[in-house]
Amino acid sequence: MTLPMSWNEWAQHDGVALAARVRKGELTAKELASQAAAGIAKVDPALSGVVEVFEDAIADPAKDGANLAGPFAGLPFLMKDLGPTMKGRLQEMGSLLMRGNRATADTFLAAKMREAGLNLIGRTTTPEFGVCSSADNPAVYVTRNPWNTDYTTCGSSAGSAAMVAAGAVPIAHSTDGGGSIRIPAGVNGNIGLKVSRGVFSLAPHMSDLTGLVSIQGCQSRSVRDTAAFVDACRGPAPGEFMPFWTPPEPYLDMIKRDPGRLRIALSHQWGDYSATPAIAAELERTGKFLEGLGHHVEYALPAIDYRAAFDAQTTCYISNFAIVIGNMLAARGLERPPADLVEPVNIRIWEAGRHTTFAERARMQAVFNTTTRGFGAFFEEWDTILTPITALPTPKVGTTEYLTISDNPSVLDWFGNLWRNFAFTPLANLSGLPAISLPLAQHENGLPLGIQAQARQANDGLLLQLAAQIERALGGQWNAGRTPGVHVTKG
Question: The pTM is what?
Answer without folding.
Answer: 0.98
